[in-house]
Amino acid sequence: MFAGLVAAKCSVPLKSSGEPQHARPYNRGLELEKALLRKVGEAVTRFKMIREGDRVAVALSGGKDSVTMLEVLLLLQKRAPINFSVCAFTIEQGKFLRPIRPLGDWLLSRGIDWHYIVDNPSLQLIEDVPDHGCDLCSRFRRRAVYDVGRKLGANVIALGHTADDFCESFLRNTMFTGRVSALPPVTYSKNKDFRLIRPLVYVHEDLTKAYAKGLTDDVVPCGCSQKTGTVRGSLREFMDQMEREHPRMKDTMLAAMGNIYPQRLLDPRYFDPDLSDEPATQSLFPILSEP
Ligand code: SF4
User: Fold this and answer.
1) Index of the ligand 1 atom closest to the CA of residue 137
2) Using alpha carbons only, how large is the chain's radius of gyration in Å?
């Protein structure tokens, strides 16, 4: 559907400070944009994330990942051979470290259909149970997201989980839940009201960080990103350390998630004792490397 998409020219908007992206040496902005379009285009095509007539609502937390995702989906929308619309919304759960309004104003000034919703039940939760965990917070957010999605007339909700999130979740599930699994690139809400998509599945956070930095100074960090001593934090540190020692390790992990070899795992539902133990022929989905 979108395979082979690359930017014909750099369309990264000016930084909200007014600094032109093109002033960067070697036109870094264009390189980042091309890499993003290629990776997001590949994910959207491979997993049939977006289809004719879709209304895609981007869950914009205000962080580097969701800001990048919104920009890339808007770029894809202009280039795609199908018609779909894109809007964005931010749910206030009381966890932003900076006001979201400057970012929202910047989006609105560019004609982007952005909506801001204060989720009072989440604010009440913070007051009543300040130490609530991610499970409860996510449940509250999910309810609010579906409410907003319905109001916006969306049938698709885009979530900003990155390649790093997929790798972290793959390790976490294997180590702590006894399942070989990560995150679904595409799934549906319980009542099938929404297709939930994760277009950044092949995009690493180094890329979103660099791209978002060139876009705006108004990216909003979440208070939870400062938490220390968590399993997630430890796994992130471990992966970053491994990546430094073995460049492209995360890409290899992603490739492994698309290249299952049941004959070397222990699930009898997929294990066939009469099959030979030949390694899988070729990776079905090759690693998407930087250009
Ligand atoms: S990290 Fe923070 S914002 Fe994210 S789900 Fe957990 S509690 Fe909620």
Assistant:
1) 8
2) 20
Domain holding 54, by residue range, is 25-225
Pocket test for ligand 1, best of 90, 91, 95 (most atoms within 8 A of CB): 95
Closest-lying ligand 1 atom to the alpha carbon of residue 132: 7
CA 20–ligand 1 middle distance (angstroms): 34
The count of domains in the chain is 1
Q: Please tell me the residue having the least CA distance from ligand 1 atom 3.
A: 224
Kindly report the pTM of this predicted structure.
0.88
pLDDT along the chain (291 residues), means of 10: 42 53 65 96 97 98 96 97 97 92 96 97 92 88 97 98 97 97 97 97 96 93 80 94 95 93 93 81 64 44
Q: Is the CB of 83 under 6 A from ligand 1?
A: no
pLDDT at residue 227, as a whole number: 78
Q: How far is CA 177 from CA 169, 174, 181, 201, 231, in A?
A: 10, 6, 9, 21, 13
Domain assignment present for 131: yes
Domain membership flag for residue 98? yes
Q: What is the DSSP letter of 96?
A: B
CATH number, domain of 176, equals 3.40.50.620
Is the minimum distance from the CB of 231 to ligand 1 under 6 angstroms? Answer: no
69 touches 100 (CB < 8 A): no
Antiparallel, parallel or unpaired: β 55-59 and 186-188: unpaired
3-state secondary structure of 179: coil
Residue 191 domain flag: yes
CA-closest residue to ligand 1 atom 1: 224
126 Cβ inside 6 Å of ligand 1: no
